Each structure stands twice: as C-alpha cells, then as structure tokens.
C-alpha cells in the first residue's frame, strides 16, 4: 500500500491507474477509523479495481470552539487496517499542502446545507464542501463513498457534485452500529462509560420512531414529540430531533409516499453526537 503525502504524487498515481483502464474508488475520512469507515472501504473494494482512502482532519470544517485539537488521531492503526483490507493508496496530506499560506478560495455550499447542522455549525459545510471538492480533484476517482451516518453531509456532497458538474459518482452507504444500536463514530471515544450509556438515547429515539411508523403512525409533530421525550431522559442537550423530507431536508407535517428521514443532534456531556434513520410508510 502506498502512503502518499504529496497531492501531485497522489494525482499521478490515480491518473496512471485510470490510463490503464482501472476503475478507482475513493473513501475520504478524518481517520480514527472504525467499522463504519471500513464498510465504505469494503464497498469500494468490491465495486472498483483500485481503492484509495484519504486521512485528513480538515481544519476548515471545525469552528474555533470545536474539537479540532483533540480530535482522535490513530494513524498507525488506521494504516494497518487499510493495508490489511487491500487499499492501494492512502493520501495523508500535511495541512499546509492543502491549505498553504494565502489560501482563500472556498466552496459556497448548496441550499440543503443551511438548516440543521448548518444552523448549529455555521461554516461547517463550507469547510466540508471545500475539502471534498479538493480531494475529488487531487484524487480523481470514478466513484466516491460516503456514509449515511452523516446524512446532511451526503446531501450536501451530492448537490455540490451535481451543481458543479464534478465527474464522479457519489455512493451513500448504510450506517454501521454497535451491537446495542449506537451509531459508530470517531467521537464515541470521548464518551465515559456512563455517557456511553446515555448516548444510546439517540438510537433508542430513532428506533421508537421507526416502530411507530411501521405501526402506521404518520403525524410528524407527534413522532417528533416522542423522540424528544426519549432524548430528554438520556442526553444533556437536544439540538434538533426532527423528521424532514429526504431530498430537500424541509420540514414535514405528515409522512406520505415521499421518503423522509429522522435526524437527531444531541450533546452527551461535552460530546456532540448525530444520528438518523430513513423512514418509509409501510
Ligand atoms: P469521518 O472520518 O467522520 O469524516 O467519516 C468519514 C466517512 O465515514 C464519512 O462518509 C462518514 O459518513 C462515514 N462514516 C462515519 N461513521 C460511519 C458509520 N457509523 N457508518 C457508516 N459510515 C460512517
């Protein structure tokens, strides 16, 4: 497995594979890899001739008060996990190779970025859209794999790729969970044992909504109230717990044949967690 720091060298490797007629899959990550990340890697390995991963903790998507400095970094274990699965190249750029002094060009994110995460983390999606577009240029893969765990991020990336005619296919992959339901996240490492128990409130609230919908309940305000109730019993702060349209992320009053998604952001202690589940009427 090649471990490449230089953007030019990474581009040249992928360009060479493309010239040979090989299909290239890309899995962008911030490292501290877990089974969720590896599910994207496995999907790429199964669908593409060559799989490339990137590990880069992107400063542009963290606000000054957020956890950039303490974000978990486990590079050696990450590289071992990627190598043993058969990844061909890992891009691990130094920060100043992507954001050199004088860097000043950012992507204005699409409309779907403005609510929810966008409201609580104002410049977050500007940073995400910028780094993802940069990675798509430096690592010109045919297909890029992202997790539905970050549902709004996936919607932002799909819209950006469409709006800016980026020649890459975006594939969304299902959320991987711990046995008890907690969605895997690099940030779960921050949780103390008691916080880890409280964090289950998110998946419990989503499971309750999913059960209610399966039983035929469709009134969104009632379903949202049920989520609130469960979350209040577990987490320290609820930022949002809503059911919205899967495409536009606009509020809904009643579930219909249009696909919907329940989205939650909440704090357990000082750790901010997000989770979601797709909803379709039976
Ligand atoms: P991150 O390292 O948090 O930026 O995540 C890198 C990619 O892995 C993103 O596309 C995430 O949506 C995806 N991902 C993170 N957690 C999970 C999970 N539990 N299941 C599936 N994909 C995930």
Write the layout of secondary structure elements.
Blueprint: E1 2-4, H1 7-19, E2 24-29, H2 35-47, E3 50-55, H3 75-85, E4 89-91, H4 95-98, H5 117-120, H6 124-138, E5 143-147, H7 151-163, E6 169-173, H8 193-198, H9 200-214, H10 220-232, E7 237-245, E8 260-268, E9 271-279
Parallel strand pairs: 1-4, 2-3, 2-5, 3-4, 5-6
Antiparallel strand pairs: 7-8, 8-9
The structure holds adenosine monophosphate (AMP).
Adenosine monophosphate binds at residues 29-30, 36-37, 39-40, 146-147, 149-150, 173, 175-176, 183-186.
Features:
single chain; 282 residues; alpha/beta; 10 helices; binds adenosine monophosphate
Could you please describe the fold and organization of this structure?
There is one protein chain. The longest helix has 15 residues, at 124-138. This protein starts with a strand and ends with a strand. It has 282 residues and is an alpha/beta fold. The mean pLDDT is 98. The strands form two sheets. The protein has a six-stranded parallel beta sheet, sandwiched between helices. A three-stranded antiparallel beta sheet has the order 7-8-9. Helices cover 38% and strands 20% of the residues. Helix 6 packs across helix 7 (151-163) and helix 9 (200-214) packs antiparallel against helix 10. It has ten helices and nine strands. It is globular, with a radius of gyration of 19 Å. Helix 7 links the parallel strand 5 and strand 6. Bound molecules: adenosine monophosphate (AMP). Adenosine monophosphate is lined by residues 29-30, 36-37, 39-40, 146-147, 149-150, 173, 175-176, 183-186.
């Amino acid at each position: 497995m090649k471990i490449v720091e230089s953007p030019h060298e990474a581009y040249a490797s992928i360009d060479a594979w493309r010239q040979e007629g090989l299909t290239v899959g890309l899995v962008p990550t911030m490292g501290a890899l877990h089974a969720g990340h590896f599910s994207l890697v496995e999907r790429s390995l199964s669908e593409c001739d060559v799989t490339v991963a990137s590990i880069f903790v992107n400063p542009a998507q963290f606000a000054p008060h957020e956890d950039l400095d303490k974000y978990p970094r486990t590079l050696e274990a990450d590289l071992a996990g990627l190598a043993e699965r058969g990844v061909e190249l890992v891009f691990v750029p130094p920060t100043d190779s992507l954001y050199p002094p004088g860097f000043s060009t950012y992507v204005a994110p699409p409309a779907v970025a403005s609510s929810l995460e966008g409201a609580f983390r104002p410049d977050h999606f500007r940073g995400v859209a910028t780094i993802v577009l940069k990675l798509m240029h430096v690592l010109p893969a045919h297909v890029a794999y992202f997790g539905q765990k970050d549902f709004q991020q996936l919607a932002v990336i799909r819209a950006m790729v469409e709006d800016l005619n980026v020649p890459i296919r975006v594939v969304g992959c299902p959320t991987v969970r711990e046995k008890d339901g907690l969605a895997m996240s690099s940030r779960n490492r921050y949780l103390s044992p008691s916080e880890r128990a409280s964090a289950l409130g998110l998946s419990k609230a989503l499971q309750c909504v999913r059960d209610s919908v399966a039983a035929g309940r469709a009134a969104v305000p009632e379903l949202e109230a049920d989520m609130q109730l469960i979350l209040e019993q577990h987490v320290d702060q609820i930022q949002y717990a809503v059911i919205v349209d899967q495409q536009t992320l606009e509020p809904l009053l009643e579930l219909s044949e249009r696909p919907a998604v329940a989205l939650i952001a909440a704090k357990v202690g000082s750790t901010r967690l997000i989770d979601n589940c797709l909803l379709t009427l039976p």
